[in-house]
Amino acid sequence: MLNRKRKRFKLLFLASTALTVLLVIIPVRLAIAHLQAPQPQAIFTLGGGIEREIFTAEFALAHPTLEIWVSTGVPTYRSNEIFRAYGIPESRLHIDRRAVDTVTNFTTLVADFKSRHMQHLYVITSAHHIPRAMAIATIIFGSQGIAFTPVSVPSGEPVESWLRIFRDICRSLLWIFTGRTGASFSHKLEVWR
Predict the structure, then answer these.
(1) Alpha carbons 97 and 72: distance in angstroms, whole number
(2) Cβ count within 10 A of residue 136
(3) What CATH architecture does domain 26-160 belong to?
(4) Are 145 and 29 in contact (CB under 8 A)?
(5) Helix, strand, or coil here: 134?
(6) Pick from 143, 149, 132: which is nearest to 186 by CA?
(7) Which residues are paired to 67 by β-bridges?
C-alpha cells in the first residue's frame, strides 16, 4: 500500500514538474522569438471558410514579401482561384490539406515552419475562433519557439465555448508530450461545443 502511494506521488510530482517547466519555457521561447523576429515572416491562415481565404488574399496584398500558408481551407482549386483573382503568384502560396481540425492546423505545419527558420507568423482566423486558435498557438508554436501575431476576420458568430478551448489546450499538451493530437477523439467529443 505504501509503495503504491509512493509511485502515485512520484508520478504526480513528475507530471506537475513537467507542466511547470513547460509553463516557464513557453513564455521564454515566445519572448526570444519576438526579439529575434519582431516582424512576422509569413502569413498562416486556418481554413474554415471562404471568407478567411478572401481576407488573406486582401491582407497579402499589403504584405507582398510574405509567403502564404493555408491549412485545410476550401478546395485547392477554389483557393488558387481566389489568390489568382487578387494577383497573388502561386510561388507565394502553400496549401496544406493534412489538418482535420484546429489543433492539427498547427501540428501538421509546425515542422515546415521550423525547417524554414520561421520565428514569427501572422495567424489569420475568424474573430469567434481567435481565443481557441491563440490558446493552441501559444502551446504548439510557443513550445517550438515560434511567435505569432493574431489577425481576425470579422464574423457574426459568438466566441467558442471555454470547454472547447480547454479540450484543445489539453490536446495541444498531449501533442507536446506524445507527438499525438488525439484528433480521432475530438470528433467523438463534439459535445464539448
Answers:
(1) 4
(2) 27
(3) 3-Layer(aba) Sandwich (3.40)
(4) yes
(5) helix
(6) 132
(7) 42
What distance in Å separates the CA atoms of residue 36 and residue 10, rounded to the nearest whole number? 38
With a cut of 70, list the residues of the chain below it in pLDDT: 1-2, 184-193
Query: d(Cα 67, Cα 94) in Å, to the nearest integer?
Result: 8
In this predicted structure, what is the pLDDT of residue 142? Answer: 96
What distances in angstroms separate CA 135 from CA 24, 69, 130, 162, 172, one per listed residue? 15, 19, 8, 11, 9
Mean pLDDT score across all residues of the chain: 90
Q: How far apart are the first and last CA of the chain?
A: 41
Closest CA to 56 of 126, 140, 147: 126
| pTM (predicted TM-score) | 0.87
- What whole-number distance in Å separates Cα of residue 147 and Cα of residue 142? 6
CA 173 to chain centre: 13
Query: Grid cell 498531449 — which residue?
Result: 174
pLDDT for residue 107:
97
Segments making up each domain of the chain, as ranges:
26-160
| 3-class SS of residue 54 | helix
Q: How far is CA 3 from CA 7, 8, 10, 126, 146, in A?
A: 6, 9, 11, 51, 42
The DSSP line for 89-101 is: -GGGEEEE---SS
